[in-house]
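Deliverable D4.2, example record:
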Amino acid sequence: MRKTLYLFTLFLFISPLVSAMQSMGGFGSGPSGAPSNFFGTGAQGQKSKVIMKPAVRYAIEKFDVAIGHKTITPDVLSTLDWKNVHVVGGSVSGELEAAGTPIIYDVFYGVMRKGKMIDRDYGGNNKTLLWSESETKVVGSAMDGSAGASFMDMGGFRALAGGFYLSREYEMKDLVQLQSNLANFNALPANVRNSVAPPLAVGATLNGKRGKYNVKIYGPWIGGDMNLEIGSGVKGQGLLKLMYGWYRAKGTWPDHSFKDSSKAYGGEATAGITAQLTQKFNVSADVGIKYFKVKNGSLKIAQSNVFDAFRGGSFKSYSVSLGGNVKL
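Output generated by the structure prediction step:
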């Protein structure tokens, strides 16, 4: 999947150059860098084939999941809570034409600059009898990809459908123990207690890498975009996607590894403003939110006494982008 996205990104950079030698058009802009009247008409009456919008994107993200047991106590053994993870990167979005059909696209890659992950472990059902709470620093990478086609045009509004891909690779390091309760740890069933390490003393630290959790969510989406004329050379845009897909994740810790599988549903909304500078170039600013609810699912692990159930979670991303649209 990663190689496919790299090739798709390369295609998005190359196709505008090829198209530029075939057509030169006017100027317009829609969400994700798309023109308000599909591809517009240039001075010579030719349709532009490609709208490309390079941008810098900054996001603050939150993500949490839980794992536990299907039939024995505790039903939730551990929660992993990534808080205020800052992601900085670049994106390329826009619109191109394929067989006469407008195709919108958006590819993003970024790195996690700072953030933290809180790991809480419980000895009782319903997240009771907390016996360990630790905090680690978070670094890693983020990648998003989306493409869709318009299947209905109603002037300023278009109905769209397509597919999406989201990837997050979290790497935890430099652990600090925040809470520790040996009595609650001893309340665990013997087979579970014998399979996990007891809590560290409060204030204890473990430097270096402490684990990885790699997440992928992918599937179809349906939605629409619209444009609003604000003033001379200034337009507002909006884009809404409703998503449903597959959740796959792999966790790797010093003493065990596991794989989570489930379904996820959610959506993405962006709103922006575009100001025209020249016939072929404008500047734009966008804000966006992306949300997924991850359902309960399955978990595979060699050490079955540790945990055997994936208890779902959620993902939230709040972003702002600054860029410029180029019409070729």
